[in-house]
Every structure is written in structure tokens, then in C-alpha cells.
Please model this.
Amino acid sequence: MPRLRKLKRFVYGSALVGLTYTGWLMYRNRNPAEQLPFDPTKKTLVLLGTGWGSTTVLKNLNTENFNVVVVSPRNYFLFTPLLPSCTVGTIENRSIMEPVRLLMRHKHREVQFYEAECTDLDADAKELTLVRCTKPEEQQSHPNSAANPEDIVKLKYDYLVVGVGGTVNTFGTPGVEEHACFLKEMGDARKIRRRLMDSIESASFSDISEEERDRLLHMVVVGGGPTGIEYAGELHDFLNDDLTHWYPGLANRVRITLVEALPNVLPAFDKKLIDYTHSTFDENRITILTRTMVKQVNEKSFIVQNPDGSRSEIPYGLLVWATGIKAQPVIGRIRQQFANVQTNGRGLLVDEYLRVKGAKDIWALGDCALSGYAPLAQVASQQGKWLARRLNSVSSMLEEDSDADIFDLVEKDRRPFKYSSQGSLAYIGSEKAIADLPFFNRNITAGGIATFWFWKSAYLNELFSLRNATLVASDWIKRFLFGRDISRE
Ligand code: FAD
Ligand code: NAI
Model:
């Protein structure tokens, strides 16, 4: 009996300590401590971007040692792996966005943020040109036109980390910019959701021809990489779980087609998983057109080159373009500064210490850096962590000798960056996912419903904050209980 009483006391005591600690963490989270102000004797470290690479640097950096300035057109971090889920309302948009100011405010020393786009670099003067993005969208300069002079800001740096990611690649295909939707940023997911509901509502009018109705209900995905596959899977679920109930007359007429130029989808995955994806898509009545290249996109139709070389025109209601990424315009400007070394148009060439080749005091990481690794969130975040640790480690040496060459210090500090793959996961629809995971020098492949639960728990665990994880988990529960929201917004 006394033993049982002791055990009970231990359990209740532990629960009380756990609850108090969680409460204290939540209190601290909402009531951050005072921060040290900027110190003019410290060096200024500028981080470009608030994506996987730069945000991970900020998260792991000891800001006591630097005056840190973050520059990005968006004031939040976006958890891209769950972006396809936002296009159909499986997850609400804000659940996968984390305001960067929450992170900044918890750093030891004050961090500055400028909501701006970096457009140019003067490496000799160590100065960046920024264009403000703080005006309402309709008042901002058009991306292709010159910025208004009053929106231009100059910013000096001592050290610079470039983590600007990539931008969508249209390969110059006519009509894509004007008529297609992309799936890269939160604005894209919002646009897809709106267009999807527009097409479906337009197809409900009784005065349109049957041919026009079929066009409106034809949803097309271009690109059979992981983005295109995950989006097609989410779209299928929306159709199957929700539209069948609320649009009974239309749902069975909706068609989903995925167009891929190569002989199969998901070229980076194991052959077994590719076959599994093809068979799951067959079951889900998603048509895959392989060896078929989209050559032109018009307002209501697109032109493809078929495997036999002939061309056909296919009508569509919604077309999502997911054919990968290319370098951001600012990367071209940075490359110009080191033109004799930076000869690859796909990004910034970096060495194994992530140092931009030909430059001094500039690092690049993530999708904008040509480091020999695939453009993946995992790569960008591992690079961010590695770089922050190196900077933390050499900062004390900089205290002693502020003119020391930081590139040399980082090189002497530790071994170069090496990526350690955690494997690939992708959602393919109807509660099935595929996984290609490294295991003791071998790769394990798996596909199915158990993998889907693994996919869910892995992403829940990787979300940026407890706040994001709570929101995503509650979205999944909400969807299970009430279905997805079909209002147009
Ligand atoms: P990003 O995360 O793209 O961040 C770039 C940042 O730079 C942004 O904040 C942007 O606003 C900012 N920026 C852009 N231009 C400028 C400028 N001129 N000046 C200042 N700032 C600028 N990878 C995986 O490993 N697993 C997945 O499951 C996965 N799923 C994905 C799903 C989708 C839909 C997409 C689109 C990508 C997915 N990826 C995934 C790839 C992953 O998102 C990228 O590899 C990752 O985002 C790269 O990180 P980054 O920091 O280099 O760039
Ligand atoms: P991608 O580059 O992986 O795939 C694009 C596909 O589009 C290619 O297969 C290409 O052949 C095809 N394509 C190009 N032009 C075409 C045309 N005109 N007509 C038809 N097909 C055409 O691009 P994606 O999927 O956007 O991925 C970008 C990066 O993000 C990759 O590194 C990917 O691994 C990563 N990512 C990873 C995810 C995951 O691990 N779950 C999810 C999403 C993205």
C-alpha cells in the first residue's frame, strides 16, 4: 500500500512539474525578456530571406556577438512541405506560417527586420540595395519595372548570408505567367483555392454547354515532381471527400490530369515507389500523361507535344504549373560582381564551407546556392544550422581581433559542411504516402496508409514551433470532424 501511495505521489508530482514547466514556457513565449540593444562595436551580419536556410541561421545564431539584420519580402517563415494541403483547405494558411518577429524577439540581442527585396549588391562598398515591400500590393512597383526612388534603401553589411531561395521556372513557355497558377508561396496556394472554386461554381450554371462544363471541370497539373504529385493527391482528396457531397451533380465529371515530360513521375524516387504512385493515381482516376511536354498555355486550353511528336490542344479550367525552380533575379546581380568565377546561371557557386566563390564575407545556402545538393528544405536547414554554429564558434576570435578574416576562421574551426539525408517523403492522395528512407547504408522504401501516418507525424514534429504544430493538428482534427471548407473566400 505505501508503495502504491508513493507511486501515485510521484505521478501527480511529475504531472504538476510538467504542467508548471509548460505554463512557464508559454508565459515566456508571450512575454519575452528585455533584449540587448544594437552594439556599434559589433559587426553587422545581414541575412537575406526568411526561408528554410536563413531562418535556421537566425534560430541557431547567438545574436550577442553580431548586430543582425534580416531582409525579406515576407515577414514570416513558410513550412513549404504542407503548402499543397493549403490549396484545398486541408490545412489553413496561417497554420504553416510563423511570423519572423516572434523568433527575433526571443533573441538575446535585438534583431532588425526590413520587409524588403534585395535587388543589388556592391561587394566593394559592402552595400545592398533594397526595395521596400511594405506598401499595399497595388501600390508596389511591378516586378519587371524600375522601383520608385523613394522605395529604395541602402544597407551596409560586414557579413552577408544569402538565402533567397529560387523562383518558379517556366522555361519561357508562352502563356504560363499569364494563365497558370504556381505553387511556391502562400499567395499561390490562395490563388489556386480561389480559381478552383471559381471553376466549380462556374460549371454549376445551367446555361453553359456541356463542352464548356467539361472544360471548367478539367484540372491540370504540369510537372510530375513531388510538388505536382502532392498537389494532385490533395486535389483528389478534396474531390472525393468533399465535392462529392456538396456538388453531387458535378463531382463525378471533374477530371484530373498530370502532364510530365519525362518517361515517369518522381524521377528522384525508387522505381517501386514510382510504380506504386502510378497505380494509386490509376485507382484515383488521375490521368498521367508521360513523355508529354506542355509547349504553350492559352486562357482556356494548352498545347502539348505528344510522345509521337504530334501536338494537341487540351481544354482546362485550372492549370497548376509545378516544373521546378530557377535562380532569383538578385542572384544574377550578385554573380555579376564575381563574373570571372560565378559562371553558372542556376545559382551562386559555393565551396564546401558555403562561401560564395570569388567573394569575401559572403555565404550562400539553400536553393540559391550551388553546393552539389538537391534544392531541398532539409539541405537548406542543415546548412543554416551548420553556418550558425560556425559563426557562433568564431565570434569570440573576432572579439579579440575584429579585422581577422572570418572565412579563414570558419575554415580552421571545423570540418566542411556535409549533408546527411533524412530520406524523402511525399503524400500521394487517399491517405497514402511514399517514403524512401536511409537505414544503415541501405534505403528502405515504403508506401501506403502506415507511411501516411509516418508522414503526418514526421511533419508535425518538424513544424517550426509548438504554435504551428498545435494549429496543424487542430486543422487535421477539424477536417476529420467537419470536412474541408468549400467557401470561395
Ligand atoms: P526559401 O525557403 O524559398 O526562402 C527564400 C526566402 O528568401 C523567402 O523568405 C523569400 O521571401 C526570400 N527572398 C526571395 N527573394 C529575395 C530577395 N531578393 N531579397 C531578400 N529576400 C528574398 N523540400 C523538402 O526537403 N521536403 C519537402 O517535403 C518539400 N516540400 C515542398 C513543397 C513545395 C510546395 C515546395 C514549393 C517546395 C518544397 N520543398 C521541400 C523544397 C523546399 O521548400 C526548398 O528547398 C526550401 O524552401 C529552400 O529553402 P531556402 O531557404 O533556400 O529558400
Ligand atoms: P521538380 O524539378 O522536382 O519536377 C518538375 C518536373 O516537371 C520534372 O519532372 C520535369 O520533367 C517536369 N517538366 C518540366 N517542364 C515541363 C513541361 N513543359 N511539360 C511537362 N513537364 C515538365 O520540381 P518540383 O516538384 O517543384 O520540386 C522542386 C524541388 O523541391 C525538388 O528538389 C523537390 O525534390 C523538392 N520538393 C520535395 C518534396 C518532398 O520531398 N515531398 C515536395 C515538393 C518539392
Q: What stands out?
A: The longest helix spans residues 2-30.
